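mind reviewing both lines:
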Amino acid sequence: MVIIALDIGERRIGVAVSDPSGTLARPYTIIERRSRAEDFATVAELVQRLEAQRVIVGLPVSLDGEIRAQARKVARYARALARVLPVPVETVDERYSTAIAQDLLAEAGRKNRVPVDAAAAAVILQEYLDHHV
């Protein structure tokens, strides 16, 4: 089962995808945000092209576990996205995903050239795969 993960930012959306077995996540691309309609159309096209069966959206829960303004905004975005996609959309806690992604990229060296947004989405997806699939 192919799963797509999204790391929703103010200007970009990081995208990661699982392998068909649902075991490994890898950074895939970034989407430059323009409008909700364009974002959703791009995600829908990815779902179709990659034959994904689920979309995971990272929810930026605060470090103390509270759902604050940014998390509420992303949750609304995910609910709206779910209304236009033909597959389930699920939110998952993404605490520390960007920091972990930055550390992994630093270890790999800049020759890797993976955008941090896509790497963060891969961290979110791998965590999901490790605990839910």
